[in-house]
Specification:
- Chain B: This is NADH dehydrogenase.
- Chain B: Belongs to the complex I 24 kDa subunit family.
- Chain B: Its cofactor is [2Fe-2S] cluster.
- The structure holds two protein chains of two kinds.
- By secondary structure, chain A is α/β, with parallel strands linked by helices.
- Chain A is built from 18 helices and 18 strands.
- Chain A has a five-stranded mixed sheet, with helices on both faces. Chain A has a four-stranded parallel sheet with strand order 12-11-14-15, with helices on both faces.
- In chain A, helix 8 crosses helix 10 and helix 8 packs across helix 14.
- Chain A is globular and about 75 Å long.
- The relative contact order of chain A is 0.12.
- Chain B has two domains: about 60 residues; about 80 residues, Glutaredoxin.
- A four-stranded mixed sheet of chain B has the order 2-1-3-4, covered by helices on one side.
- In chain B, a hairpin with a 2-residue loop joins strand 3 and strand 4.
- The two termini of chain B are about 25 Å apart.
- Classes of the chains: A alpha/beta, B alpha+beta.
C-alpha cells in the first residue's frame, strides 16, 4: 500500500499501522503505551496524527494504513493535541523527577520534554499514591502510574500470570493485584517484566544499592561479587554504548574501583550447574531407560527463579520434574561461603556476597528461607544491571575509559558454555555440549557447537537427536531419540506444559522466564525490544566463541573443586550445598 | 469464610453451561451476576473460586467486579433502600428525603446498617416521575414521599423484620 507521511512516500504491506509505516519513513511518533509486538491499544493517545479527510485525529498505533492515505505527524493541531494529552497525564502524575528512580530514564519525562512542555497548565487531583514494597523484588507506586497497561499485558499475555489488572473505573482506576492486595500476597512470580516495560517509575526494582555500599565500607566485611552472564552484554547500554557491546573487562575494572574485594563470575557456577544438572539428567535417563523404573521426565531447568515460582504456583504436579540444582547464583553463594572462604582463610560470617543480575526475581530467590546451606544467608544482596550502572555513576567512574581487567581466581574461571546461559537455548546447548560428550566421547555434532535449532527468538523451539556411538557405560542409550525443548516467556512455558500433559514426550526442557532469556531480564537496561535482544544474544555467542574452553567439563577450576571439595557430581557435599527443594504454593 | 455448598453447586452448574461456549471467558459478567444473585454480594472467596474455575486470573475478576457499579463487594442488607435522584424527584425534594434516611439509618450510600437490615443504594430515574419524589425499598415503590414518611416506613419495616 502506498501512502504519504508528511509528504514522504512510503510503501508498506496491508495491515501495517501508521506508527510502523512512519518508523519506516524515518519518522518517530511518540507513544507511552505501545509495545512492539506486545501491545497496541491506543490507550495513551500520545501517538495521535492527522489524516487528510478524517474528522478527528487518529491513534497511529492502532490505525492501519489505507491506499493513498495522507498522514501528517507534525501539524499544529497534532502538536497541541499531544501536548494536551501529556499535560493531562502530568496533572495526575504524583511524581517528582529529581527524586524518582526513573529520572533520566523515563518515557513520560522525555515525551514531555520533546513536546516542549514547560509548565503544568492543569493542576488536578493526583493519583492514589500507595507504595507497595511488600515483595523482595519490586516496589510499586500507584501515584506515578499513567495506566498505560503495558504491565498488565506483559503479566497476563506474555507471562500468563495475570497478577496485575485495572481496577475500578475512571479517575479511580488503579493498576494492581486482586482485592487491593499487596504484590507479596498474590501469585506474582516477581520476574519484573512489568518493571522492564513500565514507561514511568510506577514499578521498579527493590533497590539494594545502599546496603551494598554499606557492606563495601564496612571495616571487617570481605565483599565478594559475582556477575551473571547476561550483564556483560547489556551494562554498556547504561553508558551510551550500542546494544550488544560486550563490556566484561570494563565491568570487572569498575567493580574493583568501586571497592569490591574479590571479583568473581557467576559463570563459574554456571559451569558447575552444567555438571550437576547434566549428571542429574543422565541419572534420570538411566533410571527410565536402563532400569525401566518410574522417574519424572522431562527434566526442567531450574536456573530461572521466576519460572520456579511459576511452576510451584501453577503446576505443582511438575515439581518432581524440576532439576534439584540450585541456580548458578545460589550455588555461588553456597560455594563462596564454604569452599572459597576456607581456602582464602576468611571467616564466612564476614564474607558478604553480592550478585549482579539481569533479573529482579533473583532478589526473591536470594531471600528464600532455604537458601542458607553454607550456614549463613548464601547471598546477601542482589543488584540489577541497572542498579550497577547507577552505582558506577555514583562512584564517579568514567566507565567507557576503563581498561579491560580480568576476574579473580578461582571462582572467576569459566568456559564459553557458561556465557551462553544468558540466551534462550543457552543452558540447553551448554548441557548438551557436556552430556553428549559424556555419553559418546565425541564433540556435539554442530558447527561451532551451536545447536542452531534451539537458538533465536521463536517462543518454543524443539529438537530431536538420535544418540549413536555411545561409550560402553552408556550403551543402553544407543539409538534412543533424545527429545528436548526450549521455551522462554512463561506463556510459552505454560504452552509446553499443556503439550506434555496431553502426552507429548520430552526428556529435557529449558525454561527461561523472560523473553529472549536472561539477556531480556527484568533488571536489564530499558527498553528491551527484539532488536536489542538479538544484539545481546549475538554478543553473548561472540563471548562464548572467543573462549579457549567452550565446554563446562573442560573448566580446570571445576575439576579442581571436585578434586578438593565436592568429590563427585550429585555426591553428598553437592547434595547439601548445590541442590535444593521446592514447595507447592497457593494460587491467588 | 466458607461458601454455602448448595449455592456453590448452583454456581458450578451455571459455569458449566458457559464453559463449552465460544469465548467462554466473555461470560465473566454473567457468572458474576449469578454469584451475586446467589450470595447477595460478591464475596472474595466467590471471586477466587470463579477465577480458578474459569481459569482467569483473580485480578481480572476483581477488575471486572470493581468496574461495574451493579456488583456489590460488601454484604448487602435484607432490604435495599434507594431514593430516586432523577430530575423530577430531585426538584420535588428527593435530596431532603435521602438526607433524612442517611441520618435515620446512620449510613451513607453503598453502606449497610449494623443490624444488616438496610443497604442504601444510589439510583437514577426509575420512570415513576408521576409519583415524585420516590423511594424504593426492595421492589416496593413509595411515591410522594417526604422525609417524615420515609423514616416512618423504614421504622415499620425494621419492626417487621426484627
Amino acid at each position: 500500500m502506498k501512502l504519504t507521511i508528511n509528504a514522504i512516500s512510503v510503501e508498506v504491506p496491508e495491515g501495517t499501522t501508521i506508527l510502523a509505516a512512519a518508523a519506516q519513513a524515518g519518522i518517530k511518533i511518540p507513544t507511552l503505551c505501545h509495545l512492539e509486538g506486545v501491545q497496541s491499544i491506543g490507550a495513551c493517545r500520545v501517538c495521535l496524527v492527522e489524516v487528510e479527510g478524517a474528522k478527528t485525529l487518529v491513534a497511529s498505533c492502532v490505525m492501519p494504513v489505507m491506499e493513498g492515505m495522507k498522514v501528517y505527524t507534525n501539524t499544529k493541531r497534532v502538536r497541541e493535541a499531544r501536548r494536551m494529552v501529556v499535560e493531562m497525564l502530568l496533572s495526575e502524575h504524583d511524581g517528582n523527577c529529581q527524586t524518582c528512580n526513573r529520572n533520566n530514564d523515563c518515557e513520560l519525562q522525555s515525551v514531555a520534554f520533546d513536546l516542549g512542555i514547560t509548565d503544568i497548565t492543569y493542576q488536578g487531583v493526583k493519583g492514589r499514591n500507595e507504595v507497595d514494597a511488600s515483595t523482595p523484588a519490586l516496589v510499586r507506586d500507584n501515584g506515578k502510574c499513567i495506566k498505560c497497561r503495558r504491565c498488565v499485558t506483559v503479566c497476563t499475555q506474555v507471562q500468563a500470570v495475570g497478577a496485575l489488572f485495572p481496577q475500578f473505573r475512571g479517575f479511580k482506576t488503579v493498576i494492581g493485584p486482586a482485592f487491593n492486595s499487596d504484590l507479596a500476597d498474590v501469585s506474582c512470580v516477581q520476574c519484573g517484566q512489568c518493571a522492564a516495560v513500565c514507561p514511568v517509575g510506577a514499578i521498579v526494582e527493590n533497590s539494594h544499592i545502599e546496603r551494598v555500599w554499606a557492606a563495601i565500607e564496612h571495616p571487617s566485611k570481605t565483599v565478594v561479587v559475582q556477575t551473571a552472564p547476561a550483564v556483560r552484554a547489556a551494562l554498556g547500554e547504561c553508558f551510551g554504548n550500542p546494544p550488544g557491546t560486550l563490556v566484561t573487562g570494563k565491568m570487572v575494572a569498575a567493580l574493583r574501583r568501586m571497592g569490591f574485594d574479590v571479583i568473581f563470575d557467576t559463570n563459574f557456577t554456571a559451569d558447575l550447574t552444567i555438571i550437576e544438572e547434566g549428571m542429574e539428567l543422565l541419572k534420570r535417563l538411566t533410571t527410565a531407560v536402563r532400569d525401566k523404573q518410574p522417574v519424572a521426565l522431562p527434566q526442567f531447568t531450574s536456573c530461572s527463579p521466576g519460572w520456579i515460582k511459576f511452576a510451584e504456583t501453577y503446576y505443582p504436579e511438575f515439581i518432581p520434574n524440576l532439576s534439584t540444582c540450585k541456580s548458578p547464583q545460589q550455588m555461588f553463594g553456597a560455594i563462596a561461603k564454604t569452599y572459597w572462604a576456607k581456602k582464602a582463610g576468611k571467616d564466612p560470617k564476614n564474607v558478604y556476597v553480592v550478585s549482579i543480575m539481569p533479573c529482579v526475581a533473583k532478589k526473591f530467590e536470594a531471600q528464600r528461607p532455604e537458601m542458607d546451606d553454607s550456614g549463613f544467608v548464601d547471598i546477601d544482596a542482589v543488584l540489577t544491571t541497572r542498579e550497577l550502572g547507577r552505582m558506577i555513576r555514583q562512584a564517579g567512574i568514567d566507565f567507557n575509559a576503563l581498561p579491560d581487567e580480568d576476574y579473580d581466581r578461582i571462582l572467576g574461571t569459566s568456559t564459553g558454555a557458561a556465557d551462553i546461559f544468558a540466551n534462550t537455548g543457552g543452558v540447553m546447548e551448554a548441557a548438551l555440549r557436556t552430556a553428549y560428550e559424556v555419553i559418546t566421547g565425541r564433540n556435539l555434532p554442530f558447527e561451532e557447537l551451536h545447536v542452531t535449532p534451539l537458538a533465536g527468538l521463536e517462543g518454543i523451539k524443539k529438537a530431536a537427536m538420535t544418540i549413536t556411538g555411545t561409550l560402553p557405560e552408556y550403551s543402553f542409550l544407543e539409538g534412543v531419540v533424545l527429545k528436548v525443548a526450549v521455551v522462554h516467556a512463561l506463556g510459552n512455558a505454560k504452552r509446553i506444559i499443556e503439550e506434555i500433559k496431553n502426552g507429548e514426550i520430552y526428556h529435557f526442557v529449558e525454561v527461561m522466564t523472560c523473553p529472549g532469556g536472561c539477556i531480556g531480564g527484568g533488571g536489564q537496561p530499558r527498553l528491551t525490544d527484539n532488536e536489542k535482544r538479538k544484539k545481546r544474544i549475538e554478543a553473548i555467542y561472540k563471548e562464548d566463541e572467543g573462549k579457549k574452553l567452550r565446554k563446562s567439563h573442560d573448566n580446570p577450576k571445576i575439576k579442581q573443586i571436585y578434586g578438593e571439595f565436592l568429590n563427585m557430581p550429585l555426591g553428598k557435599t553437592s547434595h547439601h550445598l548445590l541442590h535444593t527443594e521446592y514447595i507447592k504454593r497457593e494460587r491467588v | 469464610m466458607n461458601l454455602d455448598a448448595t449455592k456453590l453447586s448452583e454456581l458450578d452448574a451455571f459455569m458449566a453451561e458457559t464453559a463449552h461456549k465460544t469465548n467462554s471467558h466473555s461470560y465473566v459478567i454473567a457468572v458474576l451476576h449469578k454469584a451475586q444473585q446467589l450470595f447477595g454480594y460478591l464475596p472474595r472467596e466467590a471471586m477466587d473460586y470463579i477465577a480458578h474455575a474459569m481459569n482467569i486470573p483473580t485480578a481480572h475478576i476483581w477488575g471486572v467486579a470493581t468496574f461495574y457499579h451493579f456488583f456489590n463487594l460488601k454484604p448487602v442488607g435484607k432490604h435495599p433502600v434507594s431514593v430516586c435522584m432523577g430530575t423530577a424527584c430531585y426538584v420535588k425534594g428527593a435530596k431532603l428525603v435521602l438526607d433524612a434516611i442517611k441520618e435515620e439509618l446512620r449510613i451513607t450510600i453503598g453502606e449497610t446498617t449494623e443490624d444488616g437490615i438496610f443497604t442504601l443504594q444510589e439510583t437514577r430515574c426509575i420512570g415513576a416521575c408521576g409519583l415524585a419524589p420516590v423511594m424504593m425499598v426492595g421492589d416496593k415503590i413509595y411515591g410522594d414521599i417526604t422525609p417524615k414518611k420515609a423514616v416512618k416506613v423504614l421504622a415499620q419495616i425494621r419492626k417487621e423484620t426484627v
